[in-house]
Amino acid sequence: MALAAVFARLFGDDPPIEFRAYDGSRCGSSGSPAAIVVNSPLALAHLAAAPGELGLARAYVNGHIEVLGDMYTALAAFPSFRVSDIPWKLRAELAARLVGYRFWWPVQPPPQENRGNSGRRHSKRRDSESISYHYDVSNLFYEWVLGPSMTYTCAVFEHGDATLEQAQYAKHDLVARKLGLTEGMRLLDIGAGWGGMVLHAAEHYGVRAVGVTLSRSQAEWAQRVIADRGLSELAEVRHQDYRDVPETDFDAVSSIGLTEHIGRQQLPSYFRFLRGKLRPGGKLLNHCITRPDSSYPARTGKFISRYVFPDGELEPPGELMSRMHDSGLEVRHEENLREHYALTLAGWCANLDRNWDKAVAEVGHGRARVWRLYMAASRLAFERDQIQLHQMLGVRSEGTISPMPLRPDW
C-alpha cells in the first residue's frame, strides 16, 4: 500500500494539508499552505520504534520528515485524532506494516534527545543539569529567537498590534506595578534568565534587585549587560540555585517562569521558602505555565520532556493557589494570560524563521528543528486552552490588614 493511501485512510481523501512520500505517492491539495514530506523509510522506522509523538519528533528532528511552509500552519491544519479513534482493523494493518521497518531499518534517537538526568528528581544537581540542557545552548541563538529583550517568558500585549519588545516591557512593568515596587525597595527574582526583570526593576524603579539562575551562560550575559548600563550598584544576577540565596527581608519576590521546573512534591517547600524571604507585608508574584485542570498528568509529554524541558511539570492553577495559601501567602490577585503567550510564541517563531540559516549554523540543524516544532506546537496549545499562563500575586499579610490597595491600581 502506498504511504499516501495510508495517510488518506487515516485522515480522509481530502486532508487540509498535502502529504508526499519517498515512494512517489501523495494526497491532499498541491496548493495547501503546508506540506508534510516523508523523505525516507527511516521515518517509519522511528514510528515503529516509538509510536506516537516521540517517534514523529525523532523523525522530524533527524530530517526524515520535513514540514514545508509555516510549521504552525501545518500543525493547525493537521487533523486532530487519538489512537483510539483509529479502527482496530486499520491499527492492526499499520502495526504489521511498521514491524518490517523496525526490523530492516534500525534507528537511534537523535543526539539532541535527553534520555534522562542522573540523581533524584528535582535535586539541586539534577535541576542544574535540566536547566543547563535547555538554556546553556547559545546566547547568540537566543538573541535571534527572543529579540533584544532576551526575555523567555510570556509577554503582555496591551493592544493587538504591539511589538514583541513593547509587550515584554509591558510584562515586566506589570509585574513591577503588581509588586508595588518603589525606589529603595529590595527585589529577589528567582529564575532570572538573562536578567530582564532585574534590569527593569533597577533601571525604571530604582530597586535593588538580585536575580538567580541555574544557567551560567545566562548569568554571565546578564552581568555584562548590567555593567554596560551602569546598574552594578543596584542590580546583580548570580549563577545560583534559588534555594541557596542567603538574604532575607526582601520587599518583593518575582518568580517568572520557574515554577514549571519545581515539581508538585516540592511546591509546599518552594512557597514556604519564598515566604521566608519576604518581610511581613512583602509580596510574591508567581508567573508560570499551568495545565487547565487535573484530568491529565502533571509531567510533560515525551517530546517536551526529552527535547525541551527535562523534568518539567505543569500544575493546575487551583493547586498552586492552595499551596500558596497553605504556606502563609494570601493570594490577592490572579489572572490567566494564555492568549498573550500564544502571541509571544508567534513572535519567537517569526524570529526563528527570519534567522533560520544563522540559527542552524550556530546550534545545528537538529536543535533548530526542535525549537521550530516545540514553539509552534506550544502556540497552538495555548490557543486551544490545552495549557495556560497564570500570574498569582500573594502577600505575607501576617493576619493583619494587608498593604494591598483596596482595588488593583496597576
Automatic annotation (TrEMBL):
Keyword Transferase: yes
GO terms, molecular function: methyltransferase activity
Domain of life: Bacteria
Keyword Lipid metabolism annotated: yes
Residues annotated as transmembrane: none
Signal peptide location: none
Keywords tagged on the record: Lipid metabolism, Methyltransferase, S-adenosyl-L-methionine, Transferase
One GO BP: methylation
Family per similarity comment: Belongs to the CFA/CMAS family.
Record protein name field: Cyclopropane-fatty-acyl-phospholipid synthase
Lineage, top ranks: Bacteria, Bacillati, Actinomycetota, Actinomycetes, Actinopolysporales
